[in-house]
UniProtKB/TrEMBL annotation:
Keyword annotations of the record: Membrane, Transmembrane, Transmembrane helix
PROSITE patterns named in the record: CHAP (PS50911)
Species annotation: Enterococcus faecalis
Peptidase C51 domain ranges (all copies): 41-159
UniProt keyword annotation of Transmembrane present: yes
Annotated Gene3D superfamilies: Cholin Binding (2.10.270.10), endopeptidase domain like (from Nostoc punctiforme) (3.90.1720.10)
InterPro entries: CHAP_dom (IPR007921), Papain-like_cys_pep_sf (IPR038765)
Protein name in UniProt: CHAP domain-containing protein
Tagged with keyword Plastid: no
Length: 414
């Protein structure tokens, strides 16, 4: 059809445009050569969001029609720019033959399925007599569609520049990565390729930077698509994965000489964390503290040899300490345990020996237990601890006998 002007052409060919979307000449936009497989709706957003026929594309086709989509796909996937003058979809086959392009009944990936009933589609896959096509405006709705057809249902297949044959090994179609076996089938789901494991969706597209769930386990596909193994940061959280890429949950693991705990969502425990009936402390990387002091929430904690926080009376080196049920260390306070009284000093260690606490003086044994209601001999001196543990000072009657104690509580006469 000869075009005198865009305005008059639109008026004359309104019906044909509705079906095919052809306007006239084409403009050339170079694009990268990619390999063939189902690509999906990659039609530019700037066009797909417009009304049907709402603009003219780079190939002088009305947007969202079958001709516009196929011209775009030939450019971006086949690296082929449709020459001008192809007209409406029903003319593509005869026009292609007139220009020397092969048109036959043998579909190939990247060829164009052509119907004289004014429609064209891009061939994505071929399986025997079945052909998978990608297209626009199939239902006169200006939308993307994909479907399987019998190869004989089309009037012919135009071979402008067919895609390479199905590869063996890795292939990228410009959008996604795929892995093909020697028999031409694509890897689907969890797949080992060499020493690494990958996950592919139902169409064979490899996941990247994505979480997936399969076989009741969670997996994370890294930036190169391989499944995360071992300790891995994902955003602001760290996770641990087994050698098969399955994420640990509610489980202890050991790695890099450290112990880690994977919580219910799989992220490594950080900071103070209850695991069962015990509490633990983990650094910012998720490594559990052992035989170490830490400070958190204004309290001091001691992680024992198995990593659990010390609770109750605990020896750490040559000093003894007392910790509450949450593992927080007592400081500057009295506590009672095992029928004895203890005093935790300013550094948390239990008071031992002769001590001034407030206005009173006390004596504690080597384990930190306070003496009460008894005579105490210390450093060659004698003291008497009263019922509340405070040392007797001044004149005191004990068991009917009067004694005198100096200001330190030391007995001065008998």
């Amino acid at each position: 059809m000869k075009r005198k002007s865009l305005k008059s052409f639109i008026y004359v060919s309104a019906l044909l445009v509705f079906l095919s979307g052809f306007v006239g000449v084409s403009l050339f936009v170079k694009s990268e050569v990619v390999e063939a497989t189902t690509i999906g709706d990659d039609y530019p957003v700037k066009w797909k969001n417009l009304p049907l026929g709402g603009a003219i594309d780079d190939w002088r086709m009305y947007t969202r029609y079958c001709t516009s989509f196929v011209a775009y796909r030939l450019s971006t996937a086949n690296n082929f720019e449709l020459p001008s003058g192809f007209g409406n979809a029903d003319r593509w086959g005869t026009e292609a033959m007139a220009r020397g392009y092969k048109v036959d009944k043998n579909p190939k990936v990247g060829s164009v399925a052509w119907w004289t009933s004014t429609h064209v589609a891009w061939v994505a896959e071929v399986s025997g007599d079945n052909v998978k096509v990608e297209e626009y405006n199939y239902g006169f709705d200006g939308k993307y569609n994909t479907r399987w057809i019998n190869k004989n249902s089309a009037n012919g297949y135009i071979h402008f520049k067919d895609m390479p044959q199905t590869p063996v090994g890795w292939y990228n179609n410009g959008h996604y990565d795929y892995y093909y076996y020697a028999d031409g089938t694509k890897a689907i789901g969890l797949t080992w390729v060499g020493t690494k494991r990958y996950n592919f969706d139902k169409n064979g597209a490899m996941y990247k930077n994505a979480w997936t769930n399969s076989d009741k386990y969670s997996y994370y596909s890294t930036s190169d698509g391989s499944l995360a193994v071992g300790l891995t940061w994902v955003g602001t959280k760290r996770y641990n994965f087994d050698k098969n890429g399955a994420m640990y949950k509610n489980a202890w693991t050991n790695s890099d000489k450290y112990s880690y705990y994977s919580t219910s969502d799989g992220s490594l425990a950080v900071g103070l964390t209850w695991v069962g009936t015990k509490r633990y402390n983990f650094d910012k990387n998720g490594a559990m503290y052992k035989n170490a002091w830490t400070n958190s929430d204004k309290y001091s904690y001691y992680s024992t040899s198995d990593g659990s926080l010390a609770v109750g009376l605990t020896w750490v080196g040559t000093k003894r300490y007392n910790f509450d049920k949450n593992g927080a260390m007592y400081k500057n306070t009295w506590t009672s345990s095992d029928k004895y009284s203890y005093y935790s000093t300013s550094d948390g260690s239990l008071a031992v020996g002769h001590q001034q606490i407030g206005e009173n003086k006390y004596i504690f044994d080597k384990n930190g237990a306070l003496y009460k209601n008894m005579w105490v001999d210390l450093d060659g001196n004698r003291y008497y601890s009263k019922e509340d543990g405070a040392l007797a000072i001044g004149e005191q009657i004990i068991d009917g006998i009067t004694y005198m104690f100096d200001e330190s509580g030391k007995l001065v006469n008998n």
